[in-house]
## 1
Amino acid sequence: MSKENDGYGLSAEKSAKEIKPPKLNYLPRKPKSYNPKIGLIGTGGISDYHLKNYKAFGLKVVAISNRTPSKAAALRDKYYPDAEVYEDYKKLLEREDIEVVDITPHPMDRLPILKEALRSKKHVLSQKPFVLDLKEGEELVKLAKENNVKIAVNQNGRWAPHFSYMREAIDAGIIGRPVSVDFSLQWDQTWITGNPAFENIHHMVLFDFAIHWFDITASFMKKYTPKNVYASVVKYDEQQYSPPALASCIINYEQSQVRMAFNAHTVLGEEDVTTIVGTKGTIRSRGPGLNDQPLIELYVEGGAVKIPLEGSWFENGFKGTMGELLCAIEEDREPLNSAEDNLNSLRLCFGALESANKNKIIVPGKVNKIS
């Protein structure tokens, strides 16, 4: 081989000049003066993170409802000792002083509560996944508009520091038009073993977990229309739990592609990497887990920089979803995490589930519901 071909297939190593980090507003926002009374309906495990971060954010939760009052009382005593506890959520909705409700039960139980809250003219933050039927989601969006209130979805991943920074960088045009987005996750979810709430979800990875990544994709690619989606799942003999631990998904756009790779059974060497290559640069985040992404790597024509991030997913995320809803109410606009916008995320997710079930390419929006 001649000397000029010795490096065939290898890029020349480049040393990039360090540049100043772009100033982007990626942290959760609070309203300037609007701080309404909030009611929480449902006190499942995730509600602890809601209340912990609402308290840290200076928000006012005045009522908590659960069918088991002792569970609501325990959370009340832990975070908001002056809040009222209700066994019947309808009593909470009757309170005229409560303007915003956070509704956390599972989708089937949550649907009638969402309807009653909107008819009670309360602004609503709904737990995710928003609905299991897109038509029901569209009806809820319509109901909110008829009652002149706002409904948002607790897709808290949008305010995970790394995802929020990346979204703001895309919106600011820093890396140009996104050409490829790669999500590569290897994590240990063997803690679900023996828990029927998870073991009975066949698409535990693609649905219960990856709903965040479909939502992040919709957020990153909001200016573009997805053409089709192909997904697959694999279960292997050495798994400790029932649902397939391996999943992948490709979403094609006219001139770009989003690729997801998941291994939920990585008991050694966990890693979570997100890379976005744009027409003007590349942005990357890497860490041992979704809640530990310490910095952003940015590469553009003028140079490169590593940007330390503030906060974590389980802090910024829960502050961000409620904070954005409150800001939207104060500013009389639709929230970034509006229910109507979230339907785009569900179209991607539902299409991926159908694709994995039938081993075929699916056009997002052709599948309206899941069983």
Note: The mean pLDDT is 95.
## 2
Amino acid sequence: MKQERILFVTGKLAEYSLREVLEKLAPQVGFEFEVIVLNVQVAALMHVPLVKRRLTVPDGIDWIMLPGMCKGDLQVLIDHFGIPFKRGPKDHFDLPEYFGQEGKAPKDLSQYDIEILAEINHAPLMSNAEILQQAEHYRQNGANLIDVGCIPGESTKRAGEIVRMLVDSGYRVSIDSFDRAEVEAAVGNGAELILSCNQTNLDWVSKLGTEVVAIPNLPSDFDSLCTIVDQLVQSDTPFRIDPILEPIGFGFTTSLERYYRARKEFPDFEIMMGIGNLTELTEVDTAGINVLLAALCQELQIHSVLATEVINWACSAIREFDYARRLIKYAIENKSLPKHIHYQLVMLRDAKLNERGSDALSNLAQNIRDPNYRIFAEENQLHVMNRDGYWKGTDPYELFDQFSEANPKGLDASHAFYLGYEMCKAVTALTLGKQYQQDQPLNWGFLSQEEVSANERRRKQGEEPQCGPR
């Protein structure tokens, strides 16, 4: 039996990943395919007149699928080409669902190129137990090496002790200090990297036989970095380069140029980037910043970053960068946009909302025959319904008064608590643009917490579920 031959029309950015989807999907569904890329970057920008002008249909095509957001009357194309046209889903990653197949297979995100150095800030002021706890937190969240941050302008005798404790506990360790006694003690106890080296300490730090991070005397003085690199090469000292990432408003853009210049001038040397100057000093959620910094590092072959989690808005920064480095490596190696690979860093909002629409909600409300309350969050409103009525609005207190008045004896304390909890989640979903599903936790990316549903609790207690849809 001859298989259908479908022509998929797309834009330049989507071609590679569309082919990847189709190569797996076509044998499963049982069709043959061709892909034609029109001269547009983004498939969503297509419209019927453009397709009519630019498309040439190969022989043997049974029908043509256009991107779901292609605008215009498809009948114009059907009449012009004499062949059926259809709109596909808005996103080609939803083609398996369109053709009745299961969702996408998970991507392999086990690989990364960028090492994370996680700094324990002001470590000498912490107890040994606190240091070990912080180090383990960093390791569990993706850190490859623990950086012992000392106190600028002070000298402590604990540096060597702290490093030895961490090394004995199985951690790789670096020391962040310009104090000679601290650095020498740290190196003597197993520190494998020294942060940092410039003209002020080059004479003695280069004699320790340990890798150093070369930095300029001043962030803006790139020539001094070149001089330090030459001297480290001559002394046969292992090193990596850090041109210094500056905070926004204090030379940020210029510092990016320095990293680009460093890679051009030193193509064979390792480079490190201290990303805390952005994540710690920018009053914004840090996940997006970490993705952009990971992309910059991956493209410039910067193979290590120094990160920390001091300020509260950056309290998950290490794990964010761990996800980001894997996401970006996968995207670049597979010639794919960093999109629809995994959603662990989409935390504030959700990647996609599935809404029933007003007609479907009204129809559902008309057909409910039991007292269980259904809650939906759509169209900037809360929707609550059961056999006694359908209530919608933006104020959960008002809604509660309305549906409890309709059935004053139908709510005991536990059920009222449940409904209040669910409406709180629904309001949060509406506020942030998240998908709300009754009796299920909201999705916060990698920060999501498992939640036992109210119905599951009742089942475990041998009771009949009564909360929400069954």
Note: The longest strand covers residues 4-10.
